[in-house]
Amino acid sequence: MTGHYIALEGIEGTGKSTIAVRLAEYLEKRGIDVLRVREPGGTVTGERIRHVLLDPGGSVAPWSEALLFSAARAQLAHELVGPALESGSWVVSDRSVYSSLAYQGGGRGLGVAAVRAVNEPGLGKVWPEMVILLRLDAATGLARQENADRIGGEGVEFQAAVATAFDELATGEPDRFVVVDATDDVETVWRAVIERVEDRWAISSQA
User: Fold this and answer.
1) Is the CB of residue 130 less than 8 Å from the CB of residue 197?
2) Model confidence over 147-198: pLDDT tens digits?
3) What is the fold of 5-200?
4) What residue spans define the domains of the chain?
5) Model pTM greater than 0.90?
6) Rounded Cα–Cα distance for residues 61 and 75 (Å)
């Protein structure tokens, strides 16, 4: 018996964290066992790496950044996500490997294929089954940010490149991605998200 793995994705300021919390709570209220995680982080090792990666005063080279994200993600998959899925639990993640493909592969210009190749050995089959991409333009996303971390403070040009990479990933994997317009208020976005989830799986609908 295996569970389902849903990841919330998008550039800064799209409301991923808020929607991830609400989705996990929604599923739990319907009797589903849910593991909620965030990337980077979720394990002792991952949280230490998170501090290095996101500290606003830090300096991390592009490939060092990609490799550190991959290391934190591999630990999370090995320690938490993989076992949860094998036990039949659902996983709701605030970001996933697709963030690395968009941010480091696209935004940093390292190449999506190269970053994917770095991540695949550490993840094996532990990849999101559904990726909910909250789409928002870069300027709006940055204006919504509070307390930007090192990567969130990169500026509009970088965020626009990441947004383009996310769109290309969604186009390339239509069976995995669902795209939701994140320009509306959080309630409207939430309703759109839960409709997509209910379309995929038979979940009793009382949001």
Assistant:
1) yes
2) 788 888 888 999 999 999 999 999 999 999 999 999 999 999 999 999 999 9
3) Rossmann fold (3.40.50)
4) 5-200
5) yes
6) 21
